[in-house]
């Protein structure tokens, strides 16, 4: 792709993004980050401050409008595409624009917007610093540390770039690059200096923000619902492409061999619910309603909802959980019988029955 064609494409993309940014209704997260920008801090509970700083600067120029809110995201997306054009064949920009996530999702102002830009810039720096004539110049190491630190001010996941960069240097067998270690350590020191506001903020709050992010992946994603299956498939197509779904016919053809492996059978045949406490375990009822064999925590109120249709274990005992899973995987009980029992038990907790019981309770109280 010619340079002029690439620039024309980016110009058109920028114009389309600006129009969409000014017209598409805001997402809840965007309004959440806008609230941050009204009270600037060194960091925030669930993310570093870069998004709030960008929104504050943009709304100072364009006012508190949708365009003012999203202008930084559009700018970051445009700059990211431009850098990718230098990092790879410029035709890669066309492939990226073919994905809805880049074509439309990049107008949303979230921490992903700046971190993607900075991550791309850091990748370009990492390629450039591998050249011997640059690895001995401290200004290059300083620039890398600043980029890495700015990425950390955008999103905690920028830390994943560090082991990748370290591995790239370790795999470089050029003898002229043997002195990279000192420069690499210095670039990390610069990064930590740039990120110092985050560390000070976490120290003031007993590192609860970082702990929240570490635990975030383990949080429940919400109740099961048939629509979530299509939502999941659509998201995976955008992220990883169609290859996993092209393998689906092969998996169906070899389902008996795959089903014989207990390591795979767990994801096909069993729902494990190790919660310590629940007010109303809707996710448990959803799994039962879909006819999935279930084992759950014996803590209240799971036995009240699961009855005799599901198995139970001590949620505080690793051995109890392991034994229950192994028993469920090796149990020869007909799967259709288990599915029928789960569906029958879940049917006892419909909204119609719940409403009828509440109405009956009020009538008994009111006489």
Furnish the topology, listing elements before pairings.
Blueprint: H1 3-23, H2 28-37, H3 50-62, H4 66-87, H5 91-97, H6 100-103, H7 112-129, H8 132-135, H9 138-154, H10 161-170, H11 180-194, H12 196-204, H13 208-216, H14 226-240, H15 243-246, H16 248-253, H17 255-259, H18 262-269, E1 271-273, H19 282-289, E2 294-297, H20 302-306, E3 311-313, H21 318-330, H22 335-346, H23 351-366
Parallel strand pairs: 1-2, 2-3
Task: Report mean pLDDT, rounded to a whole number.
Answer: 80
* First-last Cα distance: 80 Å
Number of domains: 4
Number of E strands:
3
Contiguous helical run count: 23
- Rough shape? globular
Query: Helix and strand succession?
Result: HHHHHHHHHHHHHHHHHHEHEHEHHH
| Helical residue percent band | 55-70%
Strand order of the largest sheet: 1-2-3
Structural class from helices and strands?
A: mainly alpha
Residues in β-strands, percent = under 5%
Keywords:
single chain, 367 residues, mainly alpha, 23 helices, 3 strands
